[in-house]
Amino acid sequence: MAKWNVLVTRRIPEEGLELLAPHCALELNPQDRPMTRAELLASAADKDGVLCLLTDRIDAELLDTATKVKGFANYAVGFDNMDVPEATRRRIPLSNTPDVLTDATADMAWALLFAVARRVVESDAVMRSGTWQGWGPLQFIGGDITGATLGIVGAGRIGTAMAARSKGFGMRVLYTDARRNDALEHDTGARFVDFDELLRLSDYVSVHVPLLPETRHLFSYEAFGKMKKSAYLINTSRGPVLDEAALVVALKDGLLAGAGLDVYEREPAIAEGLAALPNAVLTPHTASATFASRRGMALKAATNLLAMLRGERAPDCLNPEVYG
Ligand code: DGY
Predict the structure, then answer these.
(1) Residues 16-28: pLDDT tens digits?
(2) How remote is the CA of residue 161 from the centroid of ligand 1, in Å?
(3) What is the pLDDT of residue 1?
(4) Taking the model in full, what pTM does it have?
(5) Residues with C-beta less than 6 Å from any ligand 1 atom
(6) Which domains does the chain have, with CATH numbers?
(7) Pick from 134, 318, 153, 312: which is nearest to 231 by CA?
(8) Which ligand 1 atom is the nearest neighbour of the CA of 289?
């Protein structure tokens, strides 16, 4: 018999729903789009638990409305959509989905790196247009990858996985982070540098920091100006870490050679002018979109939510202080 009323704010892989179903009366957003704010507030009001997405804002207003909720399980590793201090103050546990998307996200960062450096999307467009006249010595020349310098901004799980993959390409690795990462240094020979030095020396800069007040617009026009003109920027973290409008200008001004982006400052909108730039490769926030990764996220979010409903500590709890 169903014990708890649970809201799932958008359809997730079945494995997660199947885990919840025996224990919960599920209300599933019937639309394949994020719930509107009004829908979320109304639907959460009488629920015992919510499985939410990075597009759902979990803040004081929602917590004021959803007074019965015993916990919110985010279907994402990033949790900048959740007001953690506010939930903690109210002793409401929150969780995320670490680990299961680390490899998929690092793989996608590499896909973007290759695509932008080797001009895969531009080349593909020419082949489809029927205008290709045959091999030419100056066609689609791009950046060298093997032997180049990779700069990792944010050496957590995903940044570390990104760096590990560079071993196959004989790359020199630089990284910057609030903390030293001994395992990364040991495994890849990565050198810890400050942000400016990383920008100055890297041929590829890959961004893996969470969105925090101190990382918002970490990449400004000024920062782009510190990069090599031949360098490429890859972002699979969160859009607001880059000043996206400034990036468009920087790409036009030739401050850097190109950018591969999976995330945007005002999703689903993208900065004016970005789509017209041939040296930008753009994917729709799909870095974790592999079968295993999304299944893993669904199972993690459901497992976390069930633990919260039972009053147990969620395995991926973001604010364990609530159990103290
Ligand atoms: C996350 O998990 O934070 C990604 O952005 C989506 O999978």
Answers:
(1) 999 999 999 999 9
(2) 15
(3) 61
(4) 0.97
(5) 54, 76-78, 101, 288
(6) 4-100+291-323 (3.40.50.720), 102-282 (3.40.50.720)
(7) 153
(8) 7
